[in-house]
Design goal:
By secondary structure, this protein is of the alpha/beta class. Helix content is 45%, strand content 15%. The two termini are 28 Å apart.
């Protein structure tokens, strides 16, 4: 197939977590022989922010790790539409210009021979539903939602059986344990500050437990305001700034454990949707401890693949146990890797995508054939 994916950015993962999963999926599709191209706007905010902070050198990690991917930019909607003429499958990410989303839908309605899917990997459907409902999705063949609770929102909006659950996953061509184990020390947390909605949770489940367990803590991410950096410093955490995602495995490999603190919307409104960091951490073979979130879809084995802390005191206890119990660390690593490799790689998600495309294409092709006969 000729597959096009319209993303906010493939090259930049600066505050753009979907780029992680997308890179792995496009790589797997390419290796299976599909002609795959990512299209991103020339004025992508994430890329502009990355270049402003780090210059062209900020793209070197992506280019080194994903030199096999084909990414192109467009400046106008008509350029994007032109690329779709001979496509078989077009996927459009939720962080796209509404004008582009609408234009692609019109092109599909007016005779476009490609299948057209909308890919939602964010909480805006519940945190800002008017922004999502403002998208003109008339003409789209289906929606890919990155969790069952998000898919349920689209069903309520009338999508019925045309919405499909398509979780994120780890690109195990890049995210895997180190070939040679080295010394590991302390904790690492990789996460953007966001909009400050989980400041209390970060303090309760990350900063205070790390300090109480006497474990050094490295923090990577962007959009940390002055107050956030001051909070980190007060607890003795070291703020390291932005980390290019392809470098995350080597950072994980230097630390004893990592922590997952989900954003509030994924705890309260969209339970069961882990961030990409959970998949990537487990794939890298680093012990993981999670602040409370409900794995309502049974993606993992809580307590086996990772530890769960219901409060800050429990988190401190888990961290102390991990720091002095190599058998506990080894058990978590083995179990987490087993689950990722069995269920949650980008290759698994490509299998699922191709099955979804086949399920949609069959009735579409029957309709086209019937119209031809008529």
């Amino acid at each position: 197939m000729r597959i096009l994916y319209f993303t906010h950015s493939l090259a930049s993962c600066w505050n753009h977590g979907n780029a992680h999963f997308l890179r792995g999926v496009l790589r797997d599709l390419t290796r299976r022989g599909h002609a795959v191209t990512a299209f991103e706007p020339a004025d992508a905010w994430s890329l502009a922010s990355l270049l402003a902070d780090h210059g062209p050198a900020g793209l070197s990690a992506f280019r080194d790790a994903y030199h096999d991917l084909d990414s192109r930019t467009y400046a106008r909607v008509d350029q994007a539409l032109e690329a779709c003429h001979d496509a078989d499958l077009v996927i459009v990410h939720e962080w796209s210009d509404p004008a582009l989303v609408a234009a692609l839908g019109r092109a599909r309605r007016s005779g476009g021979r490609f299948l057209l899917l909308f890919h939602d990997t964010h909480h805006r459907a519940v945190s800002d539903p008017d922004a999502i409902r403002a998208f003109d999705l008339d003409g789209y063949d289906g929606v890919l939602a990155f969790g069952e609770t998000l898919a349920a929102v689209y069903r309520q909006w009338g999508w019925g059986e045309r919405v499909f659950v398509w979780h994120e996953a780890a690109d195990v061509t890049l995210f895997h344990p180190p070939k040679i184990e080295g010394e590991r020390q302390g904790l690492v947390w990789i996460g953007n500050w966001g909009d400050g909605e989980r400041t209390a949770q970060i303090e309760e489940f990350l900063l205070r437990p790390a300090a109480q367990a006497s474990l050094p803590l490295d923090v990577h991410g962007v959009r940390y305001p002055t107050a956030a950096k001051a909070l980190l410093a007060r607890y003795g955490a070291r703020y390291r700034g932005w980390l290019a995602n392809p470098r995350a495995p080597e950072v994980f490999a230097r630390h004893l454990a990592t922590i997952h603190v989900p954003r509030r919307f994924y705890v309260e409104r969209l339970p069961g949707i882990p961030t990409i960091r959970v998949f990537e951490a487990l794939a890298c073979g680093i012990p993981l401890v999670c602040a409370p979130w409900r794995d309502v879809e049974g993606l993992f084995r809580p307590g086996v693949d990772y530890l769960v802390a219901q409060d800050g005191a429990t988190m401190t206890g888990h961290l102390r146990a991990l720091s002095c119990d190599p058998d506990l660390r080894a058990s978590l690593v083995a179990a987490g890797l087993e689950t990722i490799r069995a269920r949650h790689t980008c290759a698994h998600r490509v299998d699922e995508l191709l099955a979804i495309v086949s399920a949609i294409a069959a009735p579409v092709m029957e309709s086209v054939a019937w119209e031809s006969v008529a």
